[in-house]
Amino acid sequence: MAYVKGNKRIGLLSATIAFFAGFAAVALYGITVHKLAFILHLSVMEVGWLVAIPLVTGAFLRIPFSALVDTWGGKRVILLQLFISIIGVTGIILTLQNIASLSSSLAYKLLLSFGALAGTGISIFSSGITYVSYWYPKREQGTALGIYAGFGNTAPGIFTAIIPYALITLGLIGAYLGWWLFLIVVTIIFLFVSSDNYYQQLLKKGYSDTEAKRISQEFGQEIFPTSAKETLKNAARLWQVWLLVILYFISFGGFEALTEWLPTYWTEFIGVTITEAGILTGIVYSLLTALFRVPGGFWSDRYGGEKIAIISYGILTFGSLIMIFSRYLILSTIGEIVMAIGMGIANAAVFKLLPKYAKNAVGGASGLVGGLGSAGGLFIPPALAYVVTIFGKIGFALGFIVYTIFGIISIGFSIFLFYKYGKYKHEISPELKKENIEKAR
Questions:
Q1: pLDDT digit string (tens) for 187-242?
Q2: Euclidean distance between CA atoms 166 and 17, whole angstroms
Q3: What is the 3-state secondary structure (H, E, C) of 226-276?
Q4: I need a labelling partner for 338 at 20 to 30 A (CA). Which of 84, 255, 328, 357 fits?
Q5: Distance between CA atoms of 4 and 199, rounded to whole angstroms?
Q6: Structural domains in the chain?
């Protein structure tokens, strides 16, 4: 039998570590933006865009990088994403080291540009999903991807909590230097530990497609790369996929946005210290959101994704209403906890529904939902900043009406999906349901 490297557990572990490192870029400017705003005399809108910029590349690069896994292999693609992130953090460090000699305008543009490069690590989510999927049989996909997404998503929360202490002990440049070293170490680990799936390894060794599949199946591989172009095209034709994009835009994109925005909310509106803001954002909100994705997946399996989506977006909406009317630390903490629970469960529910509505285009649908959906992290922070610009300080609370409106829209879409498909057994796709009805006739 042909010699191949790696196994599914190593594949899952290496991908999760890489995603954890890359996804930490969600917190790239969330805490340090206060110091940068003071140094560069930034307006609220400029702060909003600086906070959002890593999420731009992190969102839209998910689609092409995920597709490239089928052609290049997951190892090469993820290494490229990590390398681009390292370049971005390197540029941030160099800019900060020379910030005194740069004009505020030039320094701001450089931080935007290098922040965009660093945000490439966020896009590892989709390429990692594809990478892990090829390692695991279908019956273990839910568990494997739940572990991957759940633990990888804890990165923003952990880093948001750590950075304030790094700022105190290491200073602004030292905090980013520590981040840079962490990325270097993870990249080296991934380089030596990870391997492409058996099928792609064998193709690179010169085996024919048929022979590579046969041998890979003997090793236990069940899912194989397909045409990235076709799966994207098929997914784009399904209106259900576009509803899931909107739902994910609100839950996951909204999660990314608040991870960046909440430090500003806590310090500027509630008046806590930057260290306390890091804990409230990183541990209380971001980490909790990530961890609730795990039971959210279980509940979606048991009760159906549509039902859980309705409930979770209802929870999110209720939390946003608390934030609108809160003016105090305790009530705002309760509000963000409620929002975290709703968002975490909703994120799991959306990806539970994805294979149901796009069973023949899961890869393409994952790229579209994960990529376009996460764009909420780009558009929501500037919207929140705009509300502050209009209403002043009270705008920090009033801005959460954005989440209330989005939450109500999501509840409506989820109810629509439930009444159209939810009364059928939730594992059955709309296409298969239609086939079964035709056969019954």
A1: 999 999 999 888 888 888 888 888 888 888 888 887 777 666 777 788 888 999 99
A2: 21
A3: CCHHHHHHHHHCCHHHHHHHHHHHHHHHHHHHHHHHHHHHHHHHHCCCHHH
A4: 357
A5: 9
A6: 1-224 (1.20.1250.20), 226-433 (1.20.1250.20)
Q: How far is CA 22 from the centre of its chain?
A: 10
**How many Å apart are CA 19 and CA 58, to the nearest integer?**
12
Q: What is the pTM of this model?
A: 0.75
* SS3 state of residue 208: coil
Instruction: Pick the closest to residue 125 from 369, 382, 378 (CA basis).
Output: 369
Instruction: State how far the Cα of 358 lies from the Cα of 264, in Å rounded to an integer.
Output: 39
